[in-house]
Amino acid sequence: MLTFLALTSVAFLGIVPEQSQAIAIYTGWERHALVGSDIRLSCSFFSWRWTSEDVTFSWTYRPDGSRDSISIFHYTGGAAYVDNKGPFRDRLEFVGNPGRRDGSILLKNLELNDNGTFTCDAKNPPDIVGRPSSVRLLVFEKVPIQAGVITGAIIGVVLGLLVLIVVIYYLMRFLVARRVFSLSVSKHGKKKKEGSQQRQGPVPPADPSKIKV
Amino acid sequence: MLLLLLGIIFLHLAALVLLFVSTIVSVWTTGESTTSDLWINCTTSGCIPASTGEWIQSVQAVMILSIIFSCLSLVLFFCQLFTLQKGGRFFLTGTFQILASLFVMSGAIIYTVMSPEWVPEGNSFGYSYILAWVAFPLALISGLIYVILRKRE
Predict the structure, then answer these.
(1) CB contact under 8 A, A149 and B49
(2) Which ipTM score applies to this complex?
(3) Which of A148, A158, A159 is closest, CB to CB, to B57?
(4) Interchain contact B49–A (C-beta under 8 A)
(5) What is the pLDDT of residues A83-98, one digit of tens each?
(6) Burial A7-44 (b: 16+ CB within 10 A, else e)
(7) Which CATH class for the B2-148 domain?
(8) pLDDT digits (tens, 9 = 90+) for A133-182
(9) 3-class SS at A164?
(10) CB-CB: which of A144, A146, A155 is closest to B65?
(11) pTM across the whole model
């Protein structure tokens, strides 16, 4: 039974058509960073083949508002080549691990002009058909407050205070009622004791106005 | 007696509707080609979400809170109508309605004070801004009426 399952699964893997064996590249969608900070742009891929020794990674950069891309990083034949002429010279570092299919780069000391789209393309021969993936970099001078954070905070605090006041009010009423109840019980107890001592005394007249027909 | 009740409810609902319109439709500033409000800035070319500054978010929060409190006071009014003893006053309803009016007032004041920052020179205030300022005295009067009103049989 088990061998039958194993054989069928191997057969399935064998009949998988060539097109679905394209390489799939993953980067982030959008990255936010502060001016002057460093950021790691990650890129990894999925391929049905084993990682070959001729695996290549390449990063290209397209500034915001421009239509040209420039190549800023290339890894091939076991060696990494970083940008030494373009906008990222001396600011780019390869921190990936090609053996583990990781082609991430580190951008240091970000500037406002670094806003743009970074595209990672990886090839794993013979698996070379695939679509490059892009990540958008946004550089801010100071961290912007997300829309709705302060709104939600103010609403939450006021409604929380309201709930708190209601709870405290009912708690006080409950406690005061209990105290009054226990006080009246003790008074009633005292009265009962006095009443039983005065049993021989006159019965108090019934109040006619309280009698209802 | 019924007329009084209907009149009070109508006043309350009018204030509530004004609050809703002012917050949601929110044409707070208008220019030749732009309208902007608490949530979105629209020009003839397109709409972008409003700036995420601290003050505009506080105006949003305060307007939403005023709507919530006004709705709560309406609900409380109906509750108290049936459960209050004879001769009692609608204190809770009035308190909530007065709080709602205070929130609208503070929202409109903050918007007015910060408007040189948000409203470009040529633009003027839109009708939603005016509705917010009208809703404030309506809600205040409604709340005061609740506080003064006594429940009769």
Answers:
(1) no
(2) 0.80
(3) A148
(4) yes
(5) 788 888 888 888 888 8
(6) eeeeeeeeeeeeeeeebebebeeebebeeeeebebbbb
(7) mainly alpha
(8) 999 998 888 777 777 788 899 999 999 999 999 999 999 999 888 888 78
(9) helix
(10) A155
(11) 0.59
